[in-house]
Amino acid sequence: MTKSNKTTAVIVVTFNRKNQLVTTIEKLLQQSNRDFDLFIIDNCSTDGTYEYLESNILLDKVFYFNTGENIGGAGGFNFGIKTVLDHSNEYKYVWLMDDDTYAEQDAHRELINAADRLNNNFGFLSSVVLWKNGKYCEMNRQRLVRKWYKKMEYLDEGLILTDRATFVSFFTSIKSIYEVGLPISDFFIWGDDIEYSNRISKKNYSFVVGKSKVVHYTETNVGSDISKDDKSKLWKYKYAYRNEVYIAKNNGIRGRLYQFAKIGYHILRVLGTRCDNKIKRISIILGCSIKGLFFNPRVEVPKEGD
């Protein structure tokens, strides 16, 4: 374990997106608050990511780790947090993001300011996520809690209560990690951030930080939809429905009823949409939802001082 005089460990998980990754790194290196170390977790990319970072003279500015195999976004963030905890016990926060997340110049500063304003008494903080045209990114909208007015004293400072956010720009404390554990690596992709943000927000109030902004540089600004997606992307939904049912099981009767209704609605959308492979799409919805009923992955909780 090494010493670090930095407050935050930034963790970027990447897979075969070297061009976007370089821009992500450059945006981070331009932050007005540079009180962080930057960890690149490479999910065994096959597009020459390491060599590309080397040619852009970026390897000496980051801590680079290759997972050895593609363990998905969920596994990558799990691996990344473990790596940070092994690297130094002096970090106070971790800031998670995807490899196509471009942080605006004051994004980290505003997260730190919010943490200070809250006296570090929070579960997680989430930046406002915009798309490349400046509008809100649909797939990264946080869910505001129904009783958001419980913390109205922070509204003037751009802080509003949430209990669900994505890993596109997700800021939490090392203390919270020791309290609730790590993201579930067995999720592989999709839903790991929703489950993790739910888990953390059940322990402590969590907030959207209106003054912290990032741009999610995705191809389109639409959410996932099994009735519209190309058949080449259908494999991802196998994880989505399995993981969503697992999350619903842990969110009481309301969560279960909502997921049941959602499954029915998605089947109706497939039937009512002019898409190919209807039987395959419906079988994924039903089959993987059933798998979710029996899916009970292990939640890893690191021990402080290990």
Coarse structural class: alpha/beta
CATH topology of the largest domain: the name is Spore Coat Polysaccharide Biosynthesis Protein SpsA, Chain A
Low-confidence parts lasting 5 or more residues at pLDDT below 50? none
Number of helices: 9
The biggest sheet, with number of strands, parallel, antiparallel or mixed sense and barrel status, is: 10 strands, mixed
The CA-CA distance between the termini, in Å, is 10 Å
Percentage of residues assigned to helices: 25-40%
Keywords: Glycosyltransferase, Transferase
Organism: Erysipelothrix larvae
Protein name: Multidrug MFS transporter
GO molecular function, one term: glycosyltransferase activity
Structure overview:
The termini are close together. The longest helix is centred in the last third of the chain and has 21 residues, at 252-272. Helix 2 links the parallel strand 2 and strand 3. It is globular and about 55 Å long. The chain has nine helices and ten strands. Strands 1, 2, 3, 4, 5, 6, 7, 8, 9 and 10 form a ten-stranded mixed beta sheet that branches. The chain is α/β, with parallel strands linked by helices. The chain folds into two domains: 8-216, Spore Coat Polysaccharide Biosynthesis Protein SpsA, Chain A, CATH 3.90.550.10; 231-294.
Short synopsis of the structure:
GO terms for molecular function: glycosyltransferase activity. This protein is an alpha/beta fold. 38% of the residues lie in helices and 19% in strands.
